[in-house]
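Query structure, 305 tokens:
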């Protein structure tokens, strides 16, 4: 796959405080890349460096092969971005907003404006004033603006903020369509981990300015061992037996089941022990951890943003 964005050993220091510590990740053509981290992790600082709003203290950013520091104009020609909320003129129509933005770019035709309107699905409302748009529609119009210059990389900073569940689902489907059918690379920061798990091909997780993981979502989930659910009777007796075993961890009752962490190769041993103690074992089920479970485990923080 073609490499669209390459971040290597990126650092940022302000005064005596180092905010970003040598983080590295790559984004390839036609993929959706999730960027995750709790409050203060360094997400916004990193995004600002990616779009040239902040200068790195070290490391490199390459966009479509162009170093952002040495070839800024060439690199940014391949980038469309919305940092925080899209800036729109609410008293103008959607089309008029796009026409205003097009004047700042070279070679944007009326045909291109019509094309991006179709891509974001605003054909029926593009001539209505933006003040009548829902938040989801304004978000799509902002993305249409970002797509006018035919970027290869689209950067979206918390695009689901404020959207209702229907709007979030529509955005998720839209972003997947951009990647799969338009061949666009989408870099998206989000605090909605369940959405990222459904939307993204790969993720980077940062915490306190350090990159804890960068790679495929499925590889991360498969790498980490999940818990085991036991349907047993009597429940309380089984709970006490499990807690007494040094190789069984985090034992708790969850909806009339026992949930615990135990190595796969020790499950038959534990099952035999329970049977020998007169415990009836009806089912044993391994549960793969969700991205949210892994995120909290890696960051040690229950504040997700």
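Result returned for the query:
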């Amino acid at each position: 796959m073609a490499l669209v964005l390459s971040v290597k050993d990126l650092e940022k220091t302000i005064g005596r405080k180092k905010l970003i510590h040598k983080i590295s990740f790559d984004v390839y053509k036609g993929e959706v890349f999730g960027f995750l981290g709790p409050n203060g992790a360094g997400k916004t600082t990193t995004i600002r460096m990616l779009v040239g709003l902040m200068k790195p203290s070290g490391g490199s950013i390459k966009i479509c092969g162009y170093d952002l520091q040495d070839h800024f104009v060439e690199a940014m020609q391949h980038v469309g971005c919305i940092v925080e909320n899209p800036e729109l003129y609410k008293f103008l129509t959607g089309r008029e907003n796009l026409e205003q933005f097009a004047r700042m770019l070279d070679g944007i035709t009326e045909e291109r404006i019509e094309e991006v309107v179709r891509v974001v699905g605003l054909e029926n409302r593009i001539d209505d004033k933006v003040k009548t748009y829902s938040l989801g529609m304004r978000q799509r119009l902002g993305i249409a603006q970002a797509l006018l210059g035919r970027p290869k990389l689209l950067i979206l900073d918390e695009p689901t903020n404020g959207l209702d569940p229907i709007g979030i689902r529509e955005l998720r489907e839209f972003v997947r369509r951009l990647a799969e059918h338009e061949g666009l690379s989408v870099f998206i920061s989000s605090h909605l981990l369940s959405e990222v798990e459904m939307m993204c091909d790969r993720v980077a997780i940062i915490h306190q300015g350090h990159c804890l993981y960068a790679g495929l979502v499925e590889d991360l989930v498969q790498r980490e061992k999940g818990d085991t659910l036991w349907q047993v009777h009597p429940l309380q007796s089984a709970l006490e037996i499990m807690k007494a075993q040094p190789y069984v961890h985090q034992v708790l009752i969850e909806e009339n089941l026992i949930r615990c962490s135990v190595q796969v190769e020790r499950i038959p041993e534990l099952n035999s022990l329970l049977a020998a103690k007169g415990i009836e074992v009806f089912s044993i089920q391994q549960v793969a951890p969700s991205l949210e479970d892994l995120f909290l485990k890696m960051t040690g923080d229950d504040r997700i943003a």
